Amino acid sequence: MNAVRHLTLVRTSPEVVEQRVAQLEDGYTRLANELLDAVMAAGLSETEMCVVLAVWRKTYGYSKKMDWISNEQLEQMIGKHLTHCSTAKNVLINKKVLAQEGRKVGMNTNVSEWKTKNNGFCKTLAKPAKKTLAEVANGPLQKVLTTKDNIQKIKENTQTHDVGLSLEEKLTTRQKGTNPRAKGTNPRSAMQSFDRERLKETWNCKAEKYGLPKIRNVSTTVENGLKRLWQSYLKQCKELGNQPNEIDTFLNGYLAHGYTPTKWACGDNPEGKRYGIETALRQEKIDEILSRED
Questions:
Q1: How far is the C-alpha of 210 from the C-alpha of 212, rounded, in Å?
Q2: Would you say residue 23 lies in a domain?
Q3: Which CATH number do you get for residue 106?
Q4: pLDDT at residue 124, as a whole number
Q5: Which domain holds residue 49?
Q6: Rounded mean pLDDT of 56-64?
Q7: Residue 189 above 50 pLDDT?
């Protein structure tokens, strides 16, 4: 009985295994090469990439520009939980990779509007890291011996705040009671001058689009928010090893492309209040937007 059962399984197993071979005759999705190149260089996460492919399949695969694709459909197509699909889709919409009209979504074929690595809004670490590693590798080797004298020097250096300063700087600091590294002397953290009229026009254009309060001038409150934004950006550039953009380019790019007001900020709240530029410059919002551009 067992032998017969074994023979039956052996005979039926080749029929269970189905070989699937992709053929153009079974259908294909027409796609612009420029769009494919842009997505490959966009630095999208795995789930985001899968959602993009699913949107292609559901739109271009049926000769459509946009279509309503539920999260349940995305879950079945890419094999990831619908909440992850929903999050990835919203991120892609915020990055302007996907365009949305009501419940329908589709690809934004204007690649220059994308807030991804391929358009320069986010910079890859590959080149800076390669350059830094090359400088370290080509630099002179320092011979450090763990001796009693060296240990004593290290202890002396750690007992003072003047570590790394020249002898003249140390003497000047002690005699005058000043600290050359005091807060505000770092040129990278100082707020540079910026084009106020250009910034005002950038925000007012955004405000008109979303029905938000416009500004007549750059107030002290707004300027403080811009300073927080600039310092947070410089800090991020330092941590990532990136060269900061020119201040007007960054500030206007942040307001025009980085910040997207929520429905709540546009008046969908119990008071019906519309929130202006101050909301875009809150530290929580700054951290949220800059974290998307890592």
A1: 6
A2: no
A3: 1.10.10.10
A4: 41
A5: 29-119
A6: 92
A7: no
